[in-house]
Amino acid sequence: MNYEILLPNSSFKECADFIKKNFREIYYVEAGYKIFDNYLIGVPPIPIAVENEDVIMPYVKPCHGCFVLRIPGKEEAGRLRKGE
Amino acid sequence: MNALLMMGCPELPVQTAAALYIANRLNHEGFEVTAAGNNAAIGLLLNSDPERHYIKKVLDLDRCIANLAEKKMEFDLCFVFIHSDSGISYLATVKSLSKAKTVAIVFGKEIEPLIEASGDSIIIAAKAVHNPTPLRTKIDGVKSWAALMK
To answer: Which end of chain B is more exposed for a tag (fewer CB within 10 A), N or C?
Structure first.
């Protein structure tokens, strides 16, 4: 998957705050929301930002903490905008 | 009854010992136990229990989350091993996806913020990194896991 790390190795709260602070178009989803064939891990409500056709989301790995990723995803951005 | 042991990063040695100890207790009480973790966590568990006396079923952590999200599996009791912020995220996710009663097994050096973030789960917590005894003592404080299900 093509992605850019906007914030590395942080806490989930730091990642959620980063998204809320730096982006305007934000959607909130439940933990386990399926996006890019991945089920989101985190403390709900989980903020996901959309900027143009990019999705900006927190991504948790057990050994590495939480990251904020920017991932190009026209289809997923559209799905979030429709509230799906 | 079935129980899930959801393990985090295995960088703290007590995790594997605690998981095997809890699995043994659960087996004796008649639970069907599944352990979920990443490759390293599962590898440590299975190398410590080569004849599978304690750990009967294992599952990749991502697959486990997917199965819970897709309602392909459900548990009565879920133990989430927490020694970092990631563990709190996994606990919150399990609580969102499952009706299981959740038990936060909190360990490491700085456990207070993790205990606070564990919310309304049953909390078993001890400062423990290498020596599993403090955590085992707390686990032993629960006389019956099956009784919690009644």
So the answer is: C
What number is the ipTM of this complex?
A: 0.94
What is the phi-psi region of residue B33: left when phi exceeds 0, alpha when psi lies from -120 to 50, beta otherwise? beta
B31-45: pLDDT as tens digits: 999 999 999 999 999
8 Å CB contact of A31 and B97: yes
A34–B69: do the CB atoms touch at under 8 Å? yes
Question: Considering only alpha carbons, which residue of chain A is nearest residue B114?
Answer: A11
- Taking the domains of chain A in order of start, what are their residue ranges? 4-81
What CATH number does the domain containing B48 carry?
3.40.50.10160
**Which chain B residues have a beta carbon less than 8 Å from that of A39?**
62, 65-66, 69, 93
Domain interval for residue B18: 2-148
**Angle, CA B90 vertex, CA A17 and CA B105 arms, to 5°:** 120
How many angstroms away from the CA of A61 is the closest CA of chain B?
7
Q: Spell out which residues of chain B touch residue A43, defining contact as CB-CB under 8 Å.
A: 88-89, 92
Domain tally, chain B = 1
What are A45-77's pLDDT values in tens digits?
A: 999 999 999 999 999 998 889 999 999 999 999
pLDDT tens for residues B82-105? 999 999 999 999 999 999 999 999
